[in-house]
Every structure is written in structure tokens, then in C-alpha cells.
Amino acid sequence: MGVAQWFNEVATIAKWELKRFSGTMSRDILPVAIILFVLLIGATGLTQQSGLHLQDEIYTAGSDSDTASGILLSDSRFTVYSIPQGSRPSGFDLVVSGGNVYAADTDKGMAALKAFDKDYSNYKIALYNRERDLFAAYPLWIEEQTVESELDFTATQIGTMGYYRLNPNEIPTPDNPGGYVSPPSGDIDISIEELRNELIAGEGQDDQLSRYSDVISGEGIELEYKIPSQMSPSLPFDSIILVFVFIFPLYFTSQFYMMSIMNERIERSGEALLSTPLSGWQIITGKGLPYFLMMLGITAVLTAFTGGEFLILLPIFPVILFFLAFALLIGMLARSFKELSFISIFFSTVATSYIFFPSIFANIHIIGKVSPLTLVIMTLEGESYTGLDYVYSTALFFLTSAVIFYISAKNFSEERLFSYNKLMARIREFISTIISRRWTNTSLLLIAALTIPFVFMAQLMCLVLFFNLPMPTSLILMLVSAAFIEEFAKSIGIYTIAYDRPEWLTWKNIAVASLAVAAGFLAGEKLLLFATLAEISESVFGEIMFTSLQVLWMPLTLHFAGIFTTAVILKFGGRRAYIPALMTATLVHTAYNTYFIFFGGI
């Protein structure tokens, strides 16, 4: 088959899929969907003009002061009643009487008190903003200057000293000599009235929230000089919100690909395609192509709408492949739409954690660069990134997508698609498909190597969760989780064989298979480490994830010991002994890492 013919057949399948997708919405439903969409736009516009009023008049307040009543009436959450001077009537959530404030001894009363405290603070700020001598009201003015963070991920020294306790009886001395720091001039190149106007314009808004709610609209006031209460965290939450606008439609679109695969399995309409001479690669490529182009188009439209650069498409591209790959696999694994929903929700939770959590630390910590969204944020902020940064952030997404597409294509057959075994049994079936009975050890070697992207992705996710915890807690958690993830990944091939062919587990086969798995895992580990993770490998956490890779025989022995332990326990205990076998191998692995870290020179 020529290349041109291959692509022509893929294009034909893509046209069929596009026609099928357009036909899923009947002519009766389409007008209703259009009307609902118009109503949604109208409701959004009305909300933008008049605001949300879900909390209007939820608190009752009594006041004997005109000033206090004015403050309360400025907040739509309060219904205000006049009360006699100096009285304290019951039945109110909040009472202002005789210059004092009383709250009901209920949760609602405490909430009303907090709301009034915020309103009173805004009232005082409004008074200060109108003081004749503005510098007396606000003696401190701050000019923000953005500087690039010098933090890197070489945290070995920090890691070993993180739990060192200082002697309270000794005066600490600096490591380096001090020097003279010249004070700022104190001059402000802006008039008092301009400062006053900026402050008055910003009255009543929450500086921690308004900066994020105005991201899409482009509104909001950027002050040149700020008072301390107007300072906001430097974390790029505004860019993250904008990134969410990109990612959510992409994930939503990938669900149509998943539903298409699931529909063809449930309705058995996929039998027609499987009966043709087309390969699994052609079918999944053709069916996924319309959704891939839709996702690229959505990204391009959003980029143009927000005024961003089209370079955003580069880091978004592997995320699109990642979503489509998992959508395909989930659609092939689930037995029913109920199970499909459960698996897809679980995947979305894990994927969102891995994709979004690191981007919170963009421009702050090197850990942020494990997510392609960090590159998107850098592009939105007008910053550049290197080719190495791109490889570092996207390599795992490209590799995991490639592995999932490969496994899915190998299993895209009538036997697998129309089997309705339980989820774990289907996963074993998928793995057994890529294990050759003739070249079993070679298959185990390749499977071990192919698990490396998933292992590193899981370990990096644990790293994101644990690295900000205090020492030595984060170190211990990382030790155990890294060992467990590696032992689980190495054991899936052996466990599949032990389940399907327990007689294969002879002593000779166990020894040779353990060596093959160890070699494959080490080879994949080395290749991916050298390609992408040089910065993290220098840290104390990197020492846990990639312990002793500098001396090849040591990690080879470690990997061999771990998988050999699992295989031996499976031989004697059968498939029901898998969990104890995995725990034992994890214990051995953790003990080795602990010894190497605390006695090996870190």
C-alpha cells in the first residue's frame, strides 16, 4: 500500500466520522440547542450588566446610627431596620447599638459580622482616600518591579538542611559580609490628585479577585503605585484562568472521540469497519482526525480572540494528542457508559492535577516546567522559552500519547472491542496482546521500557504534590511513592503472564525475565532522563527518582531484585499474592534508596 493510498483511506474514514458526528444531533434538537445558546449569551450579558444577586438580603441588621445604617445599606446582603437608641433587640443577625456591634451566636450571625467588618474597612478606606493630606493617610507607597526568579531546582543542600534545628542560645551569623544598601529616593513622579483618582476608582473591589475576573474582558485598573492593601500575590493565577479557557474546550471535544468509539462498541456498528482490509492505525487515525482538527481550530480561534500569539499552538499540540489518546483508550476499555463516565472523570482529575498544578509555579520554580501549560503562560506573558524547555515540558506527553496509540492500535480488533469483561481483565487483555509467546522476554523488555514515560509522569505528579511539604516528610513520601510506582510498572508484564500462563513461571524463566525487565526499565530510564530531566535530576528529589544511575550495575541490580521478588512471590502464592508481592518489592526498593541517600553521599 502506498503512502497516498493510506492517507486517502484515512481521509475517507474521517469524512464518514464527520458525517456521523453531524448526524448525532437531530433536526428537532438543533433549533432547541440554538435557542438555549442564545439564551445563555443573553443571560451572560444580563449578568455582566446587573451582576449576580444570589446573596441579596440574606442578613438582617438593626442599627440606631445613621452612619452605620449607611454602611450596611451599601451592602446588598443586608436588610436594615432602625431600632431605638441604645437597645439590643433579638431576632437580628447583627445589631449596631450605642457604638457597639453585636452578632447573633449563630453561624449566620458570625458571617454577618465578617461581612460588616469588610464593609466598615471599605468605609474607612473611602474616608482615607478623600483626606486632604493623602500621604498622611497612606505613608507607604510601593512601586512594583518584576524580576526573574533566580530559584532553581538544585535543592540538595536545602534538602539536607531542611530539618536542621538552630541553637536558640547562639546568635546566628551571616555567611557573607554585609554591605551598604542605599535607601530609595522617596520621590513619586505622579501628582497627588492622580494617585487619589486611582484609589477612588479602585474602591469596593477585591484586589485578590478582581484582577482575575477582569482577565478576559481586559478591564481593571493597573496602578503604578500601590498601598500595601492593594498588593496581590505574584503567582500567575490570571494567566492560569486564561489557560483554563483553552484547555476545557479541548478536553470537552476529546469526549466526542471517546463517545464515538463507545457507540460503535455498544451498537456494534464498528463491525463494518473491522471487516474491511483497513488496519487499526488507519481506523483510529481517521476517526480521530476530525476531532484533532476541531481542537486545533478551537485553539486558533481562542488565540485570535484573546490577542495571543499563535506560538501557543506548539505547547498545546501535545496536550491535544494526550487527550485524544486517553479518550481512545477509555472508549475501548469501558463496558458501559456508566463505567465510561467513572473512568473519564478519574482521568480528568488526574490529568488536570498534572497539567495545572505545576503551572501555578510558573516563573517561580523549575518544577513548573514539567507542564506544557507553563509554556503557554510564558507565551501569554510575552516571555520566550528555549527548545530545551519545550522538550522538557512536552516529551512525556508525546511519549505517553505514542504508547497509548500503539497499544490501542494493536488491540483494535473485533475480539477486543466487543469483549465485555471487567475493567482489570480488559487491561490484562490489552497487555497480553503485546506479549509474544515466542519472544516473551523481548516483549517484557519492551513493555518495561514503554512504561517509563508513565512512571516519570506519575513520579513528577507526586513530586508536585510533595515538594512543598516540610522536610523530612516530603522526602519520606517521595521515597515510598517513587519505589511503589516503579515496582508496579515493572510488574505488569510478569503479573499478566502469571495470570494467563502460571506454568510459565519456572525458575529459569523468572531469572531471565527479571533480567530483561530490569534491562528494559533501566534503558528507558536512562534515555528519557538524559533527554528531558537533567534539571530535576540534580535535586534531592531527583536523587530519589533516579537513584544511582551514575553507576549502571547498581540500578540494574535494584530493578532485578525488585521484579525478581515480585515474580517469586507470584510463583508460590499465585495471582492472589500480587499485592503482598508488590508491597514486598516496594519495601526492598525503598530500603535501597534510603541507604543510598543517607549513606551514599547526598
Labels describing this entry:
single chain; 602 residues; mainly alpha; 3 domains
Please describe what this structure looks like.
Residues 209-408 form the ABC-2 type transporter transmembrane domain. The chain crosses the membrane at residues 29-46, 239-258, 288-306, 312-333, 345-370, 390-409, 444-469, 475-498, 510-531, 551-570, 577-598. It comes from Methanolacinia petrolearia (strain DSM 11571 / OCM 486 / SEBR 4847) (Methanoplanus petrolearius). InterPro entries: ABC2_TM. The chain is mainly α. It folds into 3 domains: 1-37 and 235-424, no CATH class; 59-137, no CATH class; 435-601, no CATH class. Helix content is 64%, strand content 3%. The chain has helices at 3-22, 29-50, 66-73, 107-129, 134-137, 156-161, 192-201, 207-213, 237-266, 271-274, 280-306, 313-333, 337-356, 372-380, 387-410, 414-417, 423-433, 440-450, 452-466, 473-500, 507-532, 534-537, 540-545, 553-573, 578-599; strands at 59-63, 78-82, 94-97, 100-103. Helix 3 (66-73) links the parallel strand 1 (59-63) and strand 2 (78-82). The chain is globular, with a radius of gyration of 31 Å. The two termini are 56 Å apart.
